[in-house]
Amino acid sequence: MAFTKEEKATMMVQYQEWVSRSQAVFMLEYNKMAQKDIDALRAKARDAGGELHIVKNTLFSIVLDNLGYEHGKLLEKTTLVGFAFSDAPAFAKVVNETAKSDIFKVKGGVLDKKAINPAQVKALADLPPLPVVRAQLLGVLQAPAAKLVRTIAEPGRSIAGVIKAYSEAPAAA
Predict the structure, then answer these.
(1) What is the pTM of this model?
(2) If DSSP codes are grouped into helix, strand and coil, which group holds residue 31?
(3) What are the helix (H) ranges across 68-112?
(4) What percentage of the chain exceeds 90 in pLDDT?
(5) What is the pLDDT of residues 14-52, one digit of tens each?
(6) What is the distance between the alpha carbons of residues 35 and 19, in angstroms, rounded to a whole number?
(7) Do 143 and 151 contact (CB within 8 A), yes or no?
(8) Could you give the dihedral angle defined by the CA atoms of residues 12, 75, 117 and 17, in that order, rounded to the nearest 10 degrees?
(9) Which parts of the chain are beta strand (E)?
(10) Radius of gyration over every alpha carbon of the chain, rounded to an integer in angstroms
(11) Between the CA of residue 92 and those of 79, 123, 151, 156, 165, what are the distances in Å?
């Protein structure tokens, strides 16, 4: 199906808007895709804070070039593009789990305007989710304060222990 210049311009504006809102962009190759497969995948993508769209490779390549993104040969064959709007590692996890089927294959992606390969997408998927990272950071920040409080309280606790031991000791006759 041929598109008019106006339709292509509209598509490119939409692609540019999606890319500019994204923390990361992931590309998948698809084969033998049924509508139920893509609907299930799109639902998972929405839950992870992103969207999936089938794009025209040449138009999407032009948009990426205009925005200064590296993409190499990621836009060959059929391309399903995932846009991670909120949490790139969570979205990468969805993409990585999807690639375990014979329908989808991870081609790679773009993170911080740099092209990443499928192994790097997997490494990104292995990162903990954002709430876990925040909790770990909070623990690291609180540890020195807790240690300081314990250090300051230790002399008082030691004296209290000595007094208690002395009070419980049998009286010397």
Answers:
(1) 0.71
(2) coil
(3) 88-98
(4) 8
(5) 999 998 998 889 998 887 778 888 888 889 889 888 899
(6) 24
(7) no
(8) 10
(9) 24-30, 50-54, 80-84, 104-111, 114-116
(10) 27
(11) 16, 9, 43, 51, 59
Q: Kindly report, residue by residue over 88-147, the tens digit of the pLDDT.
A: 888 888 888 888 877 788 888 888 888 888 888 888 888 887 788 888 888 888 888 878
Q: Please give the C-alpha separations between residue 24 and each of 5, 29, 44, 67, 103, in angstroms, as whole numbers.
A: 28, 17, 16, 14, 22
Residue holding tokens 């623990």? 139
Token pair for residue 63? 């948009």
SS3 per residue for the chain = CCCCHHHHHHHHHHHHHHHHHCCEEEEEEECCCCHHHHHHHHHHHHHCCEEEEECCHHHHHHHHHHHCCCCCCCCCCCCEEEEECCCHHHHHHHHHHHCCCCCEEEEEEEECCEEECHHHHHHHHCCCCHHHHHHHHHHHHHHHHHHHHHHHHHHHHHHHHHHHHHHHCCCCC
Retrieve residue 155's tokens.
């002399």
pLDDT of residue 172: 59
The amino acid at 63: V
